Structure formats: C-alpha cells, structure tokens
C-alpha cells in the first residue's frame, strides 16, 4: 500500500545533516528521507544508542519453523500480486506461517514512521507532519477482501503529530473494512492517543470486536523501555476507558518478558491490567531487534511461560496466550479457546 519514489541522488542535505533517500535503503540507525518528504530514523533508534553488548545466542526454543502451507502460499501470492503491505512481513514475524494459514493477518495503518522512539521497537521514527493517505481506508478494506481474512488485526504507529492521534482515520479504516467484509472480525491494536478518552472512544465505537493497547513492560521498567510520552498508568487508563465505553468489546494487552522484570512485578502488572477490566493478555519473549536497542536480560524458559499463564488465569483473565514466540496478535482468532491458543510450550523445550 506504499510506493517508492526513485531519486536521482541518494544523498541530500537537510539543515546540514546528510540524509539518505529511502530508495538507497538507509542502514539501521541512519536518517533517511521518506517518499512523503520528511526525515526518519531507520529502525527507530540512532546508531550507537545501545549501551550493552548483544546477548548470547538464542536458545533452541526460539527457533521458528520456515512458513509453509496452502493458506500461507495463497496469501503470499496475493500480497505479491497486489503489492500489499502487512506487518507480518515487514516486522519479519516468526509466526507468519501459522497466522496466514489460519486466515489472520496484521495490517499497519497511518504509514511506517512513528512519532515515538521506544527502545524495544524497530519501527522507524520521525515526524510525518500530519501526512495521511486518504485512500488507506478503502485500500485496507480491499486488502482484507483480497486476502480473504476471517480475522484482521489493525495496528498503527503513534501519530502524536495529529490532533486526535489518528483516531478518526483509524475508525474510518475499520468502517471501510466492515462495509466490504461484514463477516471479518476486527481487532484494533491502537496507540494510546496520549490518553485522550474521546479519541479512544472514537475507535471503540467504530465496530471493532477487540480493543488492544499494549502495556509492554512492568511499571519500574516503563522508562527507559518505552518512549517518555508513553506511560504505564496512561495505558491502564486507556484500556479502562475502552471497557467502560463498550463492555461487550473485548479488551487486550501484551507484556514482553526478558527485560529485567521479576516475578513479583509480573504478577503486579497482571493485577493492574485485570483491575482495568482487561479480558485477554499475551506474554512473549523480548528479542533485541538491533544492537542499538535494549539488550535481552534473560531468555524465559517455556515452562516459565506456562507458570505465568496459570498466574494470569488465576487473576481472572478470560485467556492468557503465553510462550516464547508469542506476540500481541499471535493466533488472535483463537484467543478465547481457553487452550493457550493451541500452543504447547512443553514441546518447545525438547
């Protein structure tokens, strides 16, 4: 859903700073010029920002199988033929095969440049200066139709440059998808909209089945893990506002493990999420996207994820999908099957 413009000179200057044109594919941590004409930083964090050495080799349970299957091949063919963009491919998600075979995909809205720079995330960062693709609602609806999705997760970058954080645009995308694909379930994994309740309600009222906002980590590690404009309490308030607005809409959040949190902090975060009315929580292993990002402090073993899942269920969540390769939208369509979305962590450890 995004096109590339070819520049005559891959290097230009902006206020004396060398900027790489997007066609030259900037290295991780470099500034580059987007096709819309604003600058961004590839992978979100400037080169050299990481203060810790890379972690040791990944344990065997973090090795994902190569994606295969008829459903996966069918979706991939459609993506190639129609030049569609999905987070599944762009984020190199290890679960792409499972999700595409199950008729589920994640689409990122409002461009590929985020106004925030969380130190765990490899999304490019910059200031889009209000740019939005007016055709995106219909293009997103067409993408869902072409991919024959029964369940779609819509996520987006943070857009603090927009007065409403992009809430109206987000809602327009949901409505367009529902018009063209009335039987497709929509999960909205949203920004925090700076905690503005009216903007949260705009998305909740758009026709979604699930509203998600990720808390990401425990209270103590929120900063420096998340951008200063994000907040532990702010996320809780957003989730609580969504549930109060429409109790029938499921609410969901996600927690990364391996950043230095302890068991007591994990339990406290689960308790806070439940108190905010969150129905579903996902737990997964944090993996360092580049050497400029935060280092992994520990690799959580598969059996530990099972223990944390039981802890969450004891707190009253409808479901907790928990495992090393779990991401916030992992097997999203199975979230209420009450079986860890079919994931067997015991087999991963062997």
Top keywords for this entry?
globular, 17% strand, 350 residues, 7-stranded parallel β-sheet, 6-stranded mixed β-sheet, alpha/beta
Provide an overview of this structure.
The chain is of the alpha/beta class. The protein has eleven helices and 13 strands. A seven-stranded parallel sheet has the order 5-8-9-10-11-12-13. Strands 1-2-3-4-7-6 form a six-stranded mixed sheet, with no helix packed on it. It is globular and about 45 Å long.
H-E string: EEEEHHHEEEHEHEHEHHEHEHEH
Low-pLDDT segments, ≥5 res: 1-23
The largest sheet, given as strand count, sense and whether it forms a barrel, is: 7 strands, parallel
The value of Rg in angstroms is: 19 Å
- Strand pairing plus helix content: what structural class? alpha/beta
The percent of residues in helical segments reads 25-40%
Q: Choose one word for the global shape.
A: globular
Strand order of the largest sheet: 5-8-9-10-11-12-13
Distance between the termini: 41 Å
Task: Note the beta-strand portion.
Answer: 15-25%
The average pLDDT is 85
Task: Enumerate how many helices there are, as a single number.
Answer: 11
**Number of β-strand runs:** 13
